Amino acid sequence: MSIEVAEPRINTVDDVIAFAKPLGCDVSKDRLVPPLSLVAHEGGQMVGAALCHHDGYGLPTLDIVLSDTADPQALVRLLIDKVLLKLQAKGIAKCKINTYGQTDDSGFWSAAQWTGSCEPDAA
Question: In the β-sheet with 3-6, what is the strand arrangement from edge to edge?
Fold first, then answer.
């Protein structure tokens, strides 16, 4: 099955927040920026999200949340790259990234070949 990634619609924001909360991500609806966020679905089920939000002062924060059914390396890379491109289009060169769900393993980031750079793949 293929994964579909799209911005959360205004009527689905509550569902996205409800998906993220049991995985440890407690983002506030009033701080979420839906046009800079993404939700991943596979077979009609939500499997991941990249939730961009702000505190009104510093850098935006990007919370990456994955369910246990998602392919973590491919999905995280896809979500981060797409959101970083959105941020760069708005003139934002950096963000803070938090991870929840399947991304907690210390070997996860090296297996995903993540360098920590804010330069997204242009693919």
Answer: 3-6, 38-42, 45-53, 61-66, 96-101
Q: Domains of the chain: which residue ranges?
A: 3-111
CA distance 49 to 16: 7
8 A C-beta contact, residue 87 and residue 97: no
| Residue range 91-117: mean pLDDT, rounded | 70
Q: What is the mean pLDDT of residues 8-35?
A: 90
The secondary element (H helix, E strand) that includes residue 86 is: helix 72-89
- Identity of residue 93: A
* CB contact at 8 A, 64 and 48: yes
DSSP string, 26-59: ---TTTB-GGG-EEEEETTEEEEEEEEE--SSS-
3-111: CATH number? 3.40.630.30
pLDDT at 18: 94
- This prediction's pTM: 0.81
